[in-house]
Amino acid sequence: MSGHVARALRTGLDMASAERAGGVLAKGAVNTVTRDSRGRIWAALWDKGLFVLDPEGRDFKKLTEIGQHDNPMRILELENGRMVCSTWGDGIFAIDSNPDGRWVVRSLAVARDEAPGLDRIYGMAARGGCIWAIGDKSIAAFDITADSIRTRNLGDLPSHMNNVYSNIIATRDGGIWVSTFSGGVWRINAEDGCLRRYRLLAGASGPERIAPFVNRMYVADDGRIWFKWNHL
Question: Which domain range does residue 32 map to?
């Protein structure tokens, strides 16, 4: 579980019981908790660092500091199994595992004038080897090499979208979905950059009310997309 809370909890599917995650996991606001394909649990804490829980262990271990501020925001697993971490203030980092099991954290170089806002990224989604990211009033797409980032030219696409983004996800059909705090939801075709805008209806009966304030999105195993929004 994550959010603006002071701890991370381990709980069952029925939520009948919960225990505090152990180990060196610090107290603080939890930016994100995610599970990778190998069953490891990653926890990013505001201003406290990045932690990982091995599937066979019960205690979190802290990784080396992520940049100067040690403020990881989102963790993303690429198709090749590599882990990527965005931060608030220090850019993008790659996380690799040595043969001896130790984690290596390295900053990925990128020209700031080519990718404004990549130093403050709070959402990422991967599709076809490309990473789409939303940040401090910015949206960008980039490819990652061994130790650097190569940005993609999005042309005038960002100018057509509301620039206050809340969430970003990728779907199996090649779509990149971006939700906003004041403009509904956008779907970007990852192949050709074609845009489509959706305004969600707040109710099936009575006067139709547009609810553009979309907070979160989630893709279920069956491919359906779930939206959470604030009613106007």
Answer: 1-97+107-119
